[in-house]
Specification:
Blueprint: E1 3-7, E2 14-18, E3 25-27, E4 34-36, H1 51-79, E5 92-95, H2 124-145, E6 150-153, H3 174-177, H4 179-182, H5 185-194, E7 198-203, E8 206-210, E9 216-220, H6 224-239, E10 243-246, H7 257-267, E11 272-275, E12 289-291, H8 299-307, E13 314-316, H9 324-332, E14 336-340, H10 346-355
Helix pairs in contact: 6-7
Amino acid sequence: MAKIKIFCLHCGRMLQSDEASRGQKFRCPHCKHSVLVPTRSRKRIRIRTGPRSKKKIFLLAAVGLILATALLAVGLWLLAPVRVHWPDRRPIGVLFLASDYHSSATNPRGWFNDQSLDFTGTNGVQRFRQALLDYTDRSLAILKRTGAQGTIVWDLEGEEYPHKTSFIGDPRLLNHLAPEMAAAVDEFFARLRGAGLKIGLTIRPQQLVFDEHGLPQQTQVADIAGSLRDKIDYAQKRWGVTIFYVDSNGGIRRPDEVWQLRRLSAERPDILLIPEHHYLPYWEFSAPYVALRKGGSTGTANWAHHLFPGSFQALDIGDAAADWAKIVAAKSQGDILLFRAWYPNPESDLIESLAHER
């Protein structure tokens, strides 16, 4: 007699039964559950249960949710665009004031990359002030020659702690973390502003906390926009800061971040946000940071120019003077060039030559 193949709905194993048994039940020899032999009018259905089936269902649901979210995001982006209003595309100098690799007992925050300096003791604050002002004067000479619109101070709080804590990104903690800088910071920024420069700072979308041993850690926060807003408002009110490099942000790893930063940009149209990590939507409301020496690609920027007219990136050309053609092309399409401004270097020379070509 002919045999038909069926599957147990409980254990998923393939079974065989006689044609004469259609419409009847028999016990599965593997899991001992009753199995109905389908009639000719019924389709044979294979239903597999268990972890693998559940995993597929979960993946399909996740993909569907991602697609729905993406469509909603695109719709909202098109209905309520947020454009960056920053017509000044002249270069911006960056100032690294310290390095944790050069910290020492007498220079615990590694100021000016020189571990032999001594900013401790009775006259430590005065010695630091003089060193800072000398550093400022040297930097101003380069910033003026290159025609820079402003400067970003990367490590206002020094670098007492190693990576990934080295850049603190919270100017409100200056008195606690670097009292020598706290005593001189107003004069420092006044000199930069007096030279007609816009002021920039590094901020982070985390909160610095100290454990019971006094060791610091950058902790994640739910309200990214609120955390950054507080730091921005403090820096704007005290020093007139308008450019903010957003260090160690989540980018694509933090799906809600793009919405929070977008809202923040809409609330503060007078500032320029430069996020370290990003993907295509960030070009609409910010100037994403791209380092040419790290193989920074122009592919995303090209897409952004089509989708978000007037968009641009902040292109770091440090150690990349050899890529002269890429630098010139970036400048011509409206990108802002970032360069090291505290000492003469090939990139600052290149920018100076470009400034004189007008």
